[in-house]
Amino acid sequence: MPFAQLPRHLINALVASEDRRFYEHWGLDPRAMARAVWSTLTGRTQGGSTLTQQTIKEVYLREHSPIVRKLLEEPVLAPILELNLTKEDILYVYLNRVFFGGSAYGIEAAARVYFNKYARNLSILESAMMVGLLPAPNRFNPHRNFELSRDRGIRVIEQMAEAGSLSRSAADRAKAQNVIVTPSRSAWGGFYPRSTGIGWFARWAENEANANSVPSQRSGTRTIATTLDLRIQAAAERQLEAALRQHAQTRQIEEGAVVVMRYDGAVLALVGGRDYRRKEWDHVTQARRQPGSVAKLCVYLAALGAGYTPDTNVSDAALTLGGRSVRNFDDRYLGDITFAAALERSSNTAAVRLAMQNARETRDVIKALRVAEEVEGEAGDLALGTYQARLVDLTSAFASVANRGRMVVPYSVQRVQDPAGVELLRRVLPARSEIRQVLQPQQADMMRQMLAGVVQRGTGRAADPGFWAAGKTGTTTESRDAWFIGFTERYVAGVWLGNSDSRPMLGVSGGGLPAQIWRAVMIDAHRNV
């Protein structure tokens, strides 16, 4: 979108919300930086980046280390960008590149995805809602929670009034504007003869094929051979829907997701939600949620790497951290217990103690297994899983353990051909000796043994399929997320239940319904194999 075609109220909303001194500073805002440092020191979170810094991040530095980027690169590059571009140029680049959620990059794409209109036709409230998405595009997505997104837009309008870019009377009129969000769909489309649930997998496969093809090969008709196993896909859809049909209303569950893969990362089934026709949002590959106690996988792996064994004693005694008590799920505290027993009962106090002793090593494991992009916070956050992660990444981390510490990268595309049958892309699997070792084999083997104990004797007993299995339960505060992720001798699978707007469920824990769904899917998957 050329800058001249962008609504003035959209520009004003962006500046008022994201960088009120944008037209006054030279790329860096010392006041905002000082506020950000102070908020960090006082335990709050407040950004200090200018729109110029955010533009540099979007275009050049997205894959760079956050610490290096914020402390070294942005302070040097932001003034240089200001010397070479006008303020309008910077806004033009930013608004055409930034992610707005819903697979939409750039304001024009976002306007069509959410409101089915051109960006130049956005109303003041619609523009404010677009700007309100930027701090957390997936959380404030109006397809997931319209009221929350609208409230964010009203807050941005208030900021415009405070900044003087909108009069009080105009702000009041803007707040009352009618907003119609278009049904959740993309331009992707597709027809699925067996079930619409395959849409999530098909969409992800096309994105993967495009990411591994040159631009000239992304248009026209192509045939993409994938890793999809229709039998296991049908089982995953059937078992998830049966559980939600029975429990969704009484347990206040809106959504669920299932992914099944082989040890090498080949994704065999992917169910991104309850109804693809109603909501294309994929809770397997797009949603980032708190993993809860599933995150203990990385804490225990770090401790194993530091010399612990399944028989090492660890304290499960009551613990207070930062003036707050660390609670075990059952409010029982057993004193010294074995490392394996602590994992089996998902002891929070033991996990926090381990994370305090091995915080750096735990972060290294999270990074090595690609569980999360950036993990901030203290030991309690690492141990209790209060950071954000995708189901597909968590499941592939468990696959790396199942694979004796060899790195597993999930994939769906095996081969791409053009209409003439010419092969455009073929996945060539590396030899086992060439796969990167991210964990020591003995470290992975001990974790396999301990995760099997979780299913046999611990919180994951409801997942026991009647043959060898290993896994971990996870439940977040107020049952906002419930997980079970694990593996058998043949498959690795993850199950998540929750609500798109993070409303609490009623009495749902990872060792309950998610574990039962996982068990049912695994029993079906292993039939006749």
Automatic annotation (TrEMBL):
The keyword DNA repair does not apply. It comes from the Bacteria. It is an enzyme of class 2 (transferase). InterPro entries: Beta-lactam/transpept-like, Glyco_trans_51, Glycosyltr_51/Transpeptidase, Lysozyme-like_dom_sf, PBP_transglycosylase, PCN-bd_Tpept. Residues 2-160 form the Glycosyl transferase family domain. It catalyses: [GlcNAc-(1->4)-Mur2Ac(oyl-L-Ala-gamma-D-Glu-L-Lys-D-Ala-D-Ala)](n)-di-trans,octa-cis-undecaprenyl diphosphate + beta-D-GlcNAc-(1->4)-Mur2Ac(oyl-L-Ala-gamma-D-Glu-L-Lys-D-Ala-D-Ala)-di-trans,octa-cis-undecaprenyl diphosphate = [GlcNAc-(1->4)-Mur2Ac(oyl-L-Ala-gamma-D-Glu-L-Lys-D-Ala-D-Ala)](n+1)-di-trans,octa-cis-undecaprenyl diphosphate + di-trans,octa-cis-undecaprenyl diphosphate + H(+). Pathway: Cell wall biogenesis; peptidoglycan biosynthesis. Gene3D superfamilies: Biosynthetic peptidoglycan transglycosylase-like (1.10.3810.10), DD-peptidase/beta-lactamase superfamily (3.40.710.10). Residues 257-492 form the Penicillin-binding protein transpeptidase domain. Its EC number is 2.4.99.28. In the N-terminal section; belongs to the glycosyltransferase 51 family. PANTHER family: BINDING PROTEIN TRANSPEPTIDASE, PUTATIVE-RELATED, PEPTIDOGLYCAN GLYCOSYLTRANSFERASE. This is peptidoglycan glycosyltransferase.
